[in-house]
Design brief:
It contains three helices and six strands. With 118 residues, it is of the alpha+beta class. The chain has one domain (6-116): Aspartate Aminotransferase, domain 1 (Alpha-Beta Complex), CATH 3.90.1150.30. It has a six-stranded antiparallel sheet. α1 packs parallel to α3 (85-116).
Length: 118
């Protein structure tokens, strides 16, 4: 089962984030990146995969917000199956969270580079 136009709705929401790029994902679908870091990818209107630090991944799975990744269940990745409209909104929120984590890490890396220059 899938939600009609889910990938379009997700794409429109994600592309509003600063510095996000989209492209073809190597396993099919569309991936979203902040620089070189992937914040997630969408497989059509039925599945979204999103990376998180393992601690956050475990919290998301435990709370039921996401499922373990459909192929790599022990990794930091989660999957969101798009069976109903609420799943699309949840996927967008989780992609935003992944984006925020990536943005924070990017800022930390820039600060480290600046400190190392002195």
């Amino acid at each position: 089962m899938s939600v009609k136009d889910a990938s379009k709705k997700i794409h429109e929401a994600i592309m509003k984030y600063k510095d996000i790029c989209s492209g073809d994902h190597r396993f099919g679908g569309t991936e979203y990146k902040l620089g070189k870091r992937e914040i997630g990818h969408v497989h059509g209107d039925h599945l979204v995969d999103i990376p998180f630090p393992i601690k956050i991944r475990n919290e998301l799975v435990e709370s039921g917000e996401a499922q373990p990744h459909h192929i790599l269940p022990d990794s930091g990745w989660v999957s969101v199956h798009l069976n109903k409209e609420e799943d699309v909104d949840r996927a967008i929120n989780l992609l935003k969270r992944s984006y925020e984590i990536a943005t924070q890490q990017k800022v930390k890396n820039i600060r480290k580079l600046k400190l190392n220059q002195y």
